[in-house]
């Protein structure tokens, strides 16, 4: 699965529905209408067959997961029981009882509240606006980025300025502008002010009950469409897979498949520095919330910490994964959490890169992780799972993934938010949906 995401992303850059490897310029060749129609029909049949096989595979995987977890619980309980008999300690029995009870109920309750639909292709990224704004942003392989009202469940603004898959989206920390990266080798800064006077239309509760996946603007009010960026950031010669604002919002960091990360001045659009050193394509870039620090992740199995607090920047290399590092993000406690296709997530101290503080192992490749202000790690997986852990590596909960509540394809990205209308967490995936969740400590805590 580790290369499937990249192949999917490359295939989405065609705008006529045909894969890029059979798409040519009109000046080179023009397919007869009948042949083009036949190709569309064949690819549609292939997609349907793939969906059927994919669904069957996921059902089998669910059964395996259930049996594996059951076996794990039984083995753990048995080992703890043997430990009790050997040590015959009342204190140990009490501690063991508490540990075993953690398998019976999650520490956090996870409830699906709202579903957002309308993108016409898979969604690569979801991001939340600054505190006080009930907005989320999404980046999709359908070449668009959207800004949604969390309370209404509606798209208020659609950005169509990119000519390739939109791979990431981030809101400015203080201004109504957004930053997106794309398969067209650029990053765009664009006006993200929304019209709050748009009619609310159908409620989110009605959308959940209806279960339909209407396109943006169909069956309701069409969102505003923006086509022109304020600033276009150029210079990369490969797909720009991620971009983020440095603290203060005056500079932007981008990560590209050309193996470099670029630092830009937002006002002028000038590239200030080109950061080199990774041996393979970059997969992610993220900036610290209050310091001029950046982490970049790469398919070379490493992530790098770049320090721009001094005139001459420094760099540290973190090695600990065995396959592509898919994301790396800062926590509020000056730690870094990294996720990888090697099916692990690691927690690091930025002051000590020799070994990880905690390692979380799973049964599926990890996509773009997110850490809450309270230190909860949300891990989206290729197998549709979203799991929650603390910074010590303790498992806290797993989001439901039934046909009614969970994602139907791989979960690509997650994002925490200040609680908005009882929603404080968002997930998105290649089922073209964004799900809004309420994640709260269970009453038993």
UniProtKB/TrEMBL annotation:
Keywords: Cytoplasm, Nucleus, Repeat, WD repeat. SMART domains: WD40 (SM00320). PROSITE patterns: WD_REPEATS_1 (PS00678), WD_REPEATS_2 (PS50082), WD_REPEATS_REGION (PS50294). It is found in: Cytoplasm; Nucleus. SUPFAM superfamilies: WD40 repeat-like. One of its GO terms (cellular component) is cytoplasm. Residues 201-223 are annotated as: Disordered. Residues 204-216 have a biased composition (Acidic residues). WD repeats lie at residues 159-191, 233-274, 275-309, 318-358. Its main location: cytoplasm. PANTHER family: WD REPEAT-CONTAINING PROTEIN 37, WD40 REPEAT PROTEIN 12, 37. This is WD repeat-containing protein 37.
């Amino acid at each position: 699965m580790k290369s499937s995401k990249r192949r999917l992303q490359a295939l989405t850059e065609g705008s006529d529905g045909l894969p890029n490897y059979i798409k040519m310029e009109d000046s080179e060749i023009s397919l007869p209408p009948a042949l083009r129609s036949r190709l569309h029909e064949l690819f549609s049949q292939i997609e349907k067959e793939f969906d059927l096989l994919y669904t069957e595979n996921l059902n089998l995987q669910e059964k395996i997961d259930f049996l594996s977890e059951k076996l794990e619980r039984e083995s753990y309980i048995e080992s703890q029981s043997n430990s009790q008999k050997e040590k015959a300690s009342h204190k140990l029995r009490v501690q063991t009882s508490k540990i075993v009870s953690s398998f019976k109920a999650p520490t956090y309750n996870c409830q699906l509240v709202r579903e957002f639909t309308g993108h016409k292709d898979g969604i690569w990224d979801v991001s939340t606006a600054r505190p006080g704004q009930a907005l989320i942003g999404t980046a999709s392989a359908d070449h668009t980025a959207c800004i949604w009202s969390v309370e209404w469940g509606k798209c208020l603004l659609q950005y169509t300025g990119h000519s390739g898959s939109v791979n990431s989206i981030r809101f400015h920390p203080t201004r109504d502008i957004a930053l997106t990266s794309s398969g067209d080798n650029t990053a765009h800064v664009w006006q993200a002010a929304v019209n709050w006077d748009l009619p609310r239309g159908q409620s989110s509760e009605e959308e959940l009950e209806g279960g339909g996946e209407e396109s943006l603007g169909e069956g309701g009010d069409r969102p505003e469409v923006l086509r022109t960026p304020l600033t276009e950031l150029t210079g990369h010669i490969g797909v720009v897979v991620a971009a983020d604002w440095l603290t203060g919002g005056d500079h932007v960091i981008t990560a590209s498949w050309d193996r470099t990360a670029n630092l830009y001045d937002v006002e002028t659009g000038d590239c200030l520095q080109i950061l080199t050193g990774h041996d393979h394509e970059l997969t992610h870039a993220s900036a610290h919330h209050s310091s001029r620090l950046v982490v970049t992740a790469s398919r070379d199995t490493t992530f790098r910490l770049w320090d721009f607090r001094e005139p001459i920047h420094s760099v540290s290399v973190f090695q600990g994964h065995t396959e592509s590092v898919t994301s790396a993000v800062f926590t509020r406690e000056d730690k870094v959490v990294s996720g990888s296709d090697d099916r692990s997530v690691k927690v690091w101290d930025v002051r000590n890169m020799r070994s990880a503080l905690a390692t979380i192992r799973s049964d599926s490749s990890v996509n773009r992780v997110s850490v809450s202000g309270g230190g909860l790690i949300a891990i989206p997986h290729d197998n549709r799972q979203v799991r929650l852990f603390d910074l010590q590596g303790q498992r806290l909960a797993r989001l439901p993934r039934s046909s009614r509540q969970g994602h139907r394809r791989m979960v690509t990205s997650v994002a925490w938010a200040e609680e908005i209308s009882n929603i404080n967490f968002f997930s998105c995936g290649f089922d073209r949906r964004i799900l809004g969740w309420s994640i709260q400590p269970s009453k038993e805590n």
